[in-house]
Write a structure and sequence with these properties.
By secondary structure, this protein is mainly α. The protein is built from nine helices and no strands. The chain has helices at about 1-15, 20-25, 30-45, 45-60, 65-90, 100-110, 115-120, 135-150, 155-180. The longest helix has 29 residues, at about 65-90.
């Protein structure tokens, strides 16, 4: 029960007061694989299961097996996108005058994706999928984290956040093109 409370508290804090939460996250030790398993594995279930239910049970009545395959692609792509974003943050750090630190970049990628996964609940009702736009709040959370975790200079952090956000969006859309045919209606 305590673990669930801490999990929910982290989600609320990263959404409501990201700058203060990044300062706490920056001081946390811990294996990055545990962070991925505990946080990404749980939150990335939201869009995967919502899309599956929305496509095969609620809205379009797409075939179950392809929809399950699509949900699996969505779920696994979350891990790939988080890792790719962490690599991009780390690789671009010197270009933007920031500190190169893959462990911090991975923390940044994991926690800044929180709004995207939570907005995934809107995939449950196909007509509400446009509300995934709320996931763009992740760009602001990323920007806040770049200042604290990667120590990006304030005057370059916005452009850095835009570059990373665009890279993440491109990766998200690329995986979307792979999974979209799996959710085709009958």
């Amino acid at each position: 029960m305590e673990l669930i409370k801490r999990f929910v508290k982290r989600i609320a804090a990263i959404l409501i007061r990201p700058a203060a939460e990044w300062a706490i996250i920056a001081t946390e030790p811990g294996a990055s694989s545990l962070r991925l398993l505990r946080y990404v594995a749980i939150l990335s279930l939201i869009p995967a299961l919502a899309r599956f239910a929305g496509a095969s049970l609620v809205g379009w009545y797409a075939p179950i097996l392809p929809s399950l395959a699509g949900a699996l692609v969505i779920y696994l792509s979350s891990f790939a996108i988080v890792y790719a974003v962490a690599l991009a943050v780390d690789a671009l750090a010197p270009r933007f005058g920031a500190r190169k630190d893959f462990a911090s970049a991975l923390k940044l990628a994991v926690y800044s994706a929180t709004p995207v996964w939570l907005a995934g609940i809107f995939l449950l009702v196909p007509g509400l999928s446009f509300l995934m736009i709320f996931g763009f709040y992740a760009a602001y959370i990323l920007w806040c984290g770049l200042l604290i975790l990667i120590q990006a200079p304030a005057e370059r952090a916005l452009l850095y956040a835009v570059a990373i956000s665009l890279a993440a969006l491109i990766a998200f859309l690329a995986f979307g093109f792979v999974e979209a045919p799996l959710f085709s209606p009958v």
